Structures are given as structure tokens and as C-alpha cells.
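Table 4 source record.
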Amino acid sequence: MPRLRAPADVDAWFAAYGWSSGRHAARQASAFVAEVVEESRHRGFPMEPLAAATEFLTEHAGSG
């Protein structure tokens, strides 16, 4: 993956893999976050997901 510095470059990279502005994949994001949290807990490292990370995944999950 190239090093992307400008927001427009990041958007263009994601768009090349199926993302579009306003995308909403809450179901996929919730399932992914729950899986990671549970796996982390089983390994002895309980965690709480960051809201910003969950929001990012809601907009980008399933792209590509």
C-alpha cells in the first residue's frame, strides 16, 4: 500500500476498492468489533473499542 498523506488520496485509494462517501456498514462493523473484542478477552487482554475506530469501520467495513 502506498503511503497516503492527503485525505483526498486516502478517499481515492478506498474508492478504488469499493468504498463510497456515505457508506454505512454498521452490521458488518458491529460483528467485526464484537469478534475482535471477544478474541482479545479470550487471550487475556480485555478491551473496549474506541468510538472513532468503530465509526471508521462503519463507513469502511467490507470495502474491497
